[in-house]
TrEMBL record:
This is Probable nicotinate-nucleotide adenylyltransferase. Its EC number is 2.7.7.18. GO terms for molecular function: nucleotidyltransferase activity. It comes from Nocardioides lentus. Residues 1-163 form the Cytidyltransferase-like domain. Catalyzes the reversible adenylation of nicotinate mononucleotide (NaMN) to nicotinic acid adenine dinucleotide (NaAD). The gene is nadD.
Amino acid sequence: MGGTFDPIHHGHLVAASEVQSWFGLDEVVFVPTGDPWQKSGRDVSPAEHRYLMTVVATASNPRFTVSRVDIDRDGPTYTIDTLRDLRVQLPDAELYFITGADALAEIFTWRDAEELFGLANFVGCTRPGYTMDAATIDAIPSQRITMVEIPALAISSTDCRERTSKGDPVWYLVPDGVVQYIAKHRLYAGSDEPDAVLT
Ligand code: ATP
Ligand code: MG
């Protein structure tokens, strides 16, 4: 499951858990993006903070892991590179790429879109406020795409950042450890710069 995870929230975690259970997956690998090319219009938090929040959020689930492939690769993150790197690391695995309906709706704007379907199965999770248009679903090879209905959680990272910058709570929208991580490192605090992370 790729994402900016700025911050990771319970919408991501429920989607991952539902898809793990639906397909009986051995492992869900969360892959925080490096430099997300589609979000170049806003300041994205340093990759190490997003990586560590993802580790904190997933640590208690034995089937959840976090990969550094995208944050350790220079340049903008493209899903085609993510899948190629994971394929090298897991040569025998059958890969499923988990996305929300909003991200999947954009898939044909992604680099080397047609090649993506040769590398992984795609799983589109329902997300409140977003619908997939039939033309996009029809254009994806049908054996490579599954839409999965997940319990609706109208949570977004954008809303979590805005709440934090206004001093509103994000308790129960994100895992407790992530609430504490955000406070400790003064993320999304408006004028304050977040702590630098040593790498
Ligand atoms: P932002 O508001 O910064 O875009 P986001 O909440 O959309 O953040 P991303 O990191 O962009 O989170 O999303 C990573 C993946 O998780 C995407 O495929 C997205 O569609 C999916 N996703 C995010 N939130 C939900 C949710 N509440 N329900 C289902 N899928 C979600
Ligand atoms: Mg998003």
